[in-house]
Each structure stands twice: as structure tokens, then as C-alpha cells.
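Reviewers asked in the last cycle whether our approach scales beyond single polypeptides. To address this, we selected a multi-component target totalling 304 residues and predicted its structure end to end. The input consisted of the following lines:
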Amino acid sequence: MDNQKPVTVKEMLKNRILWRIYVLWFLRRIMPLVIFQVAAFILLFRIFAKNVFVSKVFRNATYAADFGYWSLLKYSLAAFLNTHLITQVSILLILGVVALLLRDLMRVLITYKAMWLKR
Amino acid sequence: MEQTLKDEEILKLSLEDPSYFSILVDKYQIPFLRKTMGILRNREEAEDIVQETFAKIYRYGHRFKKEDGIEFKSWAYKILMNTSFTHYQKIKKGSANVEYLDPLLYEDTPEENQDFATIQDAKAAVAAVIDKMPEHLARVLKLYYLEDKSYADICKTEKISIPTLKMRLFRSKRLFEKLSADLDL
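The resulting structure, written as C-alpha cells, was:
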């Protein structure tokens, strides 16, 4: 049995309007933020990569991981604390930017879902 | 909660969370469609105009300020009417540069209307129609559509009440439409 209701002309027009509003909102509210965050991420990651030999850090991390999660965590903390201040700051900022990017991505998905829910 | 909110509050909320805008769409899409059908007499075009109107309402929503005598409803209808008439004129004239009746577009995208001569022609044509109108009707039409004055400002200048102004605007729009048709603009 097909339980789906047929889409009325009124709903079709509403969907078209809401889709356009969603695109407008995305371009105006989300796009500039995401562009700024991605630019910040690239800049910070370049600073980080200039100061850290990333592949060596990962290799050491895999050795530490062989002894369990606790030693991996201890190794990560020790590596972080023993690095230069600029690297520490860039790591913290990268984490912050990634958190903001994830927040905006969630916002985009949640808003998309909410747009077509009946209020 | 949303049912107790006023339209302008919903518009403000929708700028942050666009899902609120569906309340306004539910409330106004049918009346807008009916109104536009009355002007264009074509379902598909009317739907496009309604869609365009809602997009403009959202795009310029941050500019809307509630003042005495200016409700969200009248502001939204003003956009709808301007968009419809602009489209109507475009169909009639078959020209793209007739957006002189739309203050929002006229204000925000001057670079789109680069054909100065055409704009001057359009302005001259509008002036010719307005000249043929009774002075009191022409004055309110100019103040509201061309100078984009608020209801409150016009009422103060003309020393009339808001209902009188609305009636004059209604009559002047009808007359403008009729005279434009007579002059084949």
C-alpha cells in the first residue's frame, strides 16, 4: 500500500520558495563563515606543518598506541607540552576552527531538516 | 509559541533560522497568489512572482522596521505589487529596463540598470503618465513609489490619515495602470 500523500500545488510552490530561502540563507549566513574558517584552517595548518615533522609525530604515535590508549594519550600530551609555543597555539586554534566548522555543518543539516517540518 | 509571534518577529527570527520563514509562506502564499493572478492572469507567472516576492522579503528583511502605520503585511504587499507591476510592464513592453517602480531594485543594483538612455526614457514615460493624473493622486504616487517615503511621512506632508492615503494610493495605482495602457507603455 502506498501511504504517501500526493504533493499539492500549494506544497510544491512552498517547497520552491523554501528551497530558495534556504539557499539565500546559506549564501549569506554560512558561506562567508565557512570560507573564513577554511582559510584560517589552511593558514594555521601551514604554520603547524612548518614547525612540526608530522610524519615523525605520527610514527611515534603508532609506537605509543601499541601500549594502549593511555600511553597514546600520555605521548600526545607530552608531545604537545614539549613543542614550541607557536605550535601549541596553532594546534589549539586548529581545534577551535574545526569545532566551528563542525558546528556550522551541523547547523546546515539541522536547518535543512527543519525547513520542511510543519511548525 | 510561533502562533503568538507577530509577522515582523517571525521575519526577524527567520534571518537567523530560515525554518521560521515557512510560517510566513503558509500564511501569505495563497493570498499573494490570488493577488498576482488578478494582475497577470497566468498561473505559472504568478507563481514565479510569488516566489520572487518571498525571496525579496527575505533578502531585504533586515531593512524592515516596524513603524506606525507600516505593518509587515503592507510592506510585503508593496513588494508583491511592485514585483508584479514590473513584470507586467516587462511583458507589455518586452523590455528589461522597466524596474523604475521597484524602489528596492532601483536602490540596490544600480549597475544592473546601466542603459542610461532607457532609464531616462522610462522615467519620461512615467512622468508623462503622472502628468495626466489629478495632482493629489500623482503626488502620493510619486512620494510613495519614486521617493520611497513612508506612510507616516506622506501623511504628515499631505495632512491626511493613513486610511485616506491607502485609498489614494489604491486609486492612483489603478489610474496609473489605466493611463499606461491607454498610452501603450
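Confidence is low (pLDDT under 50) at residues 105-118 of chain B. We regard this as preliminary and will revisit it once experimental data from Aim 1 are available.
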